Amino acid sequence: MATISENIQQLRGRMGLACEQASRPVHSVTLLVVTKTFPAEDVRAAFQAGEHRFGENYVQEGIDKIAALADIRAQVEWHMIGPLQSNKTRVVAEHFDWVHSVDRLKIAQRLSDQRPAHLPPLQICLQVNISGETSKSGLTPEELPAIAREVAALPHLQLRGLMAIPEPADTLDAQRQPHRALARLLQQLNQDGLALDTLSMGMSADLEAAILEGATLVRVGSAIFGQRPSSAAQAAATAP
Ligand SMILES: *Cc1c(COP(=O)(O)O)cnc(C)c1O
């Protein structure tokens, strides 16, 4: 089996090719290494392979890993990318550098209120439900502009851009559509006076499509660490 370092090298190659096809400089796309379900030692291996940005979906799991990797805390960024409930905002505001999954004004207000004064502003992306799936979290494109304006005005946050998790699609063309739609929304917000620089879109299966449509940050887990155990397998493993 390939090592984490080999997988990262291969992934960096994929990102480089996609940038070339999009006529974009390689450094215009940031890699966020998604570490959910994988142990702190795997995160350390990715760090030793040169990666400095890590994304977690579950608050407690993220906090535990941040603690286990306290010795490298000053050299890495921790990004919260999973659904966030209001009773968890305080620990997130205290421990993370970014939150990509803000989809309600109330969550943003709490994060701003709870961000410790000695830390730089928390970096924020608003999550948009770009495929219009009823089950997925995220703001609708219609409600986005008003909320973006309010979030941008909060004192201890810095609104950086938009995030989406499009519905899986098989062809490159089909994958590009929702990414293009998200890029347009960002453009509109900037035309309306905001100064946003981050399009958080693209995962293991669709990062080429995302880069072609202007992604500035791709969030990649399984292409680096291998398949995550399915929830069913996880439940069986922890059953008494
Ligand atoms: C798990 C996850 C990813 C990474 O997905 P892979 O397919 O493993 O690359 C990216 N973004 C979010 C929000 C995730 O939950």
Overview of the molecule:
It is a single chain. 42% of the residues lie in helices and 16% in strands. It has 240 residues and is an alpha/beta fold. The protein has one domain (4-224): TIM Barrel, CATH 3.20.20. The chain has an eight-stranded parallel sheet. Helix 4 (89-95) links the parallel strand 3 (77-80) and strand 4. Helix 4 packs across helix 5. The two termini are 31 Å apart. The mean pLDDT is 95. The chain binds pyridoxal-5'-phosphate. Pyridoxal-5'-phosphate binds at residues 34, 36, 57, 81-82, 165, 203-205, 219-223.
Give the oligomeric state of the chains in this entry, treating copies of one chain as homo and distinct chains as hetero.
single chain
Small-molecule components bound: pyridoxal-5'-phosphate
Number of domains: 1
Radius of gyration: 17 Å
In short:
It is built from ten helices and eight strands. The protein is an alpha/beta fold and 240 residues long.
What are its keywords?
240 residues, alpha/beta, TIM Barrel, 10 helices, 8 strands, globular, binds pyridoxal-5'-phosphate
Secondary structure layout plus pairing:
Layout: H1 4-21, E1 30-34, H2 40-48, E2 53-56, H3 59-68, E3 77-80, H4 89-95, E4 98-102, H5 105-114, E5 122-127, H6 144-152, E6 157-163, H7 172-191, E7 198-200, H8 207-212, E8 217-220, H9 222-225, H10 231-238
Helix pairs in contact: 4-5
The structure holds pyridoxal-5'-phosphate.
Pyridoxal-5'-phosphate is lined by residues 34, 36, 57, 81-82, 165, 203-205, 219-223.
